Amino acid sequence: MKKKNSKLVFEEQANSMVIDIYRDLIICEIKETRDIDCLCYKNPILEPLEHLRQKYNDLVNKLLEANSQMISERLVKEKIISRIFKDAFNKPDKPQNETYIEELIRKNIHDLLHYESWRDIDIPVFNFKTKVEIFNLGNISFYPFSETDKSGEWWEYIKGLTEWKKVFCYARIKSPGDCEKALDYALINLNENLLILKGLAFPFGDENIAPINTFNSHFYWHNRFIRLNTPDENIKIEGAPSTITKLGPFQRIFDLQNDLLYKISRKTLEKINCILLRKEKQKLSKMENKFLQGLSWLGEATISDPYKVQFTKIAFALEALIGGEANEDELSTRGITASLAERAAFIMGKDKEERIIIDRKIRHFYSMRSSIVHGEGKEISILDIKEFGDLVRQVAFSLIVKIEKIKDVNELQDWIRESKYSNCI
Question: Does one domain contain both 142 and 281?
């Protein structure tokens, strides 16, 4: 008997997962379609739906993994929430026929798993002139604005901005995926290639030359007016416009309560404040200096940069926090990765199992850092950045608890050695 294709098997599993959630929603007696949004956002008022959020998140993650290059989280949620569940519960007093619902589920899941799309995305670039008809840099092509371009709606949008007269060309990137996925791909690739261009020919430290960049990327409002050409897609899955404004940041204002005080204990904050106060008097231990340097690099890593740059800054933060050679030759013998992994494991881990997990995570992420530094072309995702950043931040928070007793790397290494051969820390 012939085995089913793994993609078809998963498609059937995904259909079953959606049907299972749908039936649970019926049991929860949904009254309004807006209540279904609680699958995405925690709402204490609708506690009966809380147990479904994990099921729903598992489904979304598996769908994203199955067609990771082509579909975004936004599209998955739109299909599951709006096209399936909200349609199914549009009239709670008159539920849809289950056969109709199953067909609806099968169609939308099939579309998500089999969707393929490639489109050209055009992004304005400022302070960059080119006299040739086309300039290629990797997978990016730079074009001067033609008279045809300047007679269209796109150019009218661009002219509405203050610095439109500094725009002479645009970059075209063939991008995979739905509208959001394609836009992210295009912007990431363009920013990375512009860095390469600057590395090849841009003068270092010359303030008299304007920076080449994507339009408005140096403002608080990053309104990028982008043209999306007609995609070559196998399934018509969404109605994307031909001209789009890519918004971001206007970044929200830092909220002290939610962004800091809610996430860090008062005791930890007090210790950090004490270190900062002693810094003004130049009375810090070597370990405290390392701690502040590590936090500074973590702060640098939150600045918008190509993913590889952000990831490497996080690695710098880890090295600043707990790296460095002790007086002995142990580090050079064992290697930097092993030393960082062991130190992080004992600083953070409360028991053997936790230390093993932390050790493995540090080795994994630090090997990715090594691949970047040695030019092995390792791809970094935003998820890698978040996970590695959160992990190193926890190293910092754990280190602050012990920092009063550990003055330098030698004492750190001595403490770890004692911890390894004792029953308690």
Answer: no
